[in-house]
Amino acid sequence: MSKFDEKEIEKLLGHMPDIKDEQSSEYYYKNIDEELTKTKRRSKKKTKLYPVLASVAALFLVMLLSAKYLPVGAPTFDEGSDVELSEFNSNTDMKQYANDEQAESSVEQQEEESMESAEINQEDFVEESTDASFTRVVHANDETNENLVTYFFPDEQLQLLIPITFEQQVADPYEAFNYAQDVIPDDFPINDELYEYLSFKEIDSSGMPVIQIDVDRFQKEYPGGSTIENFLLQTINAYFAELNEDTIKLVNTNGENVSLPHIGEIDQPLEVESTDKQPFKIIHLTEIDEPYYVQSPDFSGESTESISIEDAFQRMKQEDEYTEAMSSIPSEWKIQVDNQTEDRLYLTIENVDDETEQGRIIAVETILLTAESFGFNEVVFSMDGFEQIGQYPIGEPIQAPAYVNPHD
Question: Where are its TM segments located (predicted)?
């Protein structure tokens, strides 16, 4: 039992000096809440600091609310304490106690700030290192360039086809077409449903790939809309274009001609359309921080034959007007074509300094991909002050990538 009852404690507390603080507890609560809110907006890497900050804030609030009854710096009183309240009646003692507490609090605050600053610096270093190793392509001479296959998936707006490269499940790249849904992780934010209605059957006697479309199931799931029908055919087109096929035979489950409600009957082999002279930009997938590369068609109706490589670079600096594709080259970059041979492109690029390393890598890789779509197998970059960007040596020939958007 405590040696003081409630009335005696209230009487003794009445002799304590007044706490002169014009701010209310609500004022402190509001400010602390705002600071905690700011902290929550920081990088996810700092989440481990949140419990510490919350505990400090809670303790601070308790101290503020207790200030009406206890003097600043006074020790707490538990049932086992023999300390008399009268020992702390001296203003001098309490001021000294408060100064000691304030000094200790200042040291703790400096230590916390130093620790937080060190963590931020370490995170910046890790982020910079990660930026330098970023890539969204695989080259022919890479060790990982074995048994890979690229599938194509429509974006959420049904406007673009996003290429994603996976490890091939079977040796035959034609048979691999049937394994698209097997390699897609369940939590990967891509719609692979179109492959559910498609299957590679054989190479016919004329050497043409035969693709079967389950028209009945497809129509039941997608009863209307020419857009989804076109994407069904574009998915086939894009995959077999990578295998350098010119035509594809389409059949239904009965081995007959395919007939779709809006496109109509397809009684001729599907001619594989080229994706040449389409610049590469970037697109963001849901819940994935780093961007993916995607070709951006020209929806103006202008023939690609009249588009120059310089035109393509200019388009790569702009966000798409009709799709979710975003610019892959910084708008302030000045790109000049110095020379070009049958398979090699020479470029001088200025104003590179202000971009992040990851931004520079994205620009270099999408330029390589775009150059390949114009028929160039190699690109030589010239950039003042740079000897290397990511894995790419500046001033030396760089091969065009063999695959794009490899899945980790």
Answer: 49-70
pLDDT at 56 over 50: no
Give whole-number Cα distances, 13 to 1, 6, 9, 69, 87, in Å: 19, 10, 6, 7, 12
Tell me the pLDDT tens digit for each residue of 241-267. Answer: 999 999 999 999 999 999 999 999 999
Q: Is the pLDDT of residue 136 over 80?
A: yes
As given in the structure block, the two tokens for residue 112 are 């916390």
At residue 274, the pLDDT reads: 85
Q: Which domain holds residue 170?
A: 148-271
Q: Confirm whether 296 is domain-assigned.
A: no
Is there a domain that residue 382 lies in? yes
Decide if 272 contacts 246 (C-beta within 8 A): yes
Domain identity same for 110 and 53: yes
3-state per-residue secondary structure call for the chain: CCCCCHHHHHHHHCCCCCCCCCCCHHHHHHHHHHHHHHHHCCCHHHHHHHHHHHHHHHHHHHHHHHCCCCCCCCCCCCCCCCCCHHHHCCHHHHHHHHHHHHHHHHHHHHHHHHHHHHHHHHHHHHHHHHHHHCCCEECCCCCCCCCEEEEEEECCCCCCEEEEEEECCCCCCCHHHHHHHHHCCCCCCCCCHHHHHEEEEEECCCCCEEEEECHHHHHHHCCCCHHHHHHHHHHHHHHHHHCCCCEEEEECCCCCEEEECCCEEECCCEECCCCCCCCEEEECCCCCCCCEEEECCCCCCCCHHHCCHHHHHHHHCCCCCCCCCECCCCCCCEEEEEEECCCEEEEEEECCCCCCHHHHHHHHHHHHHHHHHCCCCEEEEECCCCCEECCEECCCEEECCCEECECC
12 shares a domain with 87: yes
Average pLDDT, the chain: 79
294-342 pLDDT, tens digit per residue, is: 999 887 666 566 789 999 999 999 999 989 999 999 999 999 999 999 9
Where does the pLDDT of residue 7 fall: very low under 50, low under 70, confident under 90, or very high at 90 and above? low
Rounded Cα gap, residues 211 and 177, in angstroms? 10
Whether residue 385 is contained in a domain is answered as yes
List the structure tokens of 98.
């408060």
pTM assigned to the model: 0.69
What is the Cα–Cα distance from 291 to 294, expressed in whole angstroms? Answer: 10
> How many Cα atoms occupy the beta-carbon half-sphere of 273 within 13 Å?
11
Residue 192: the pLDDT is: 95
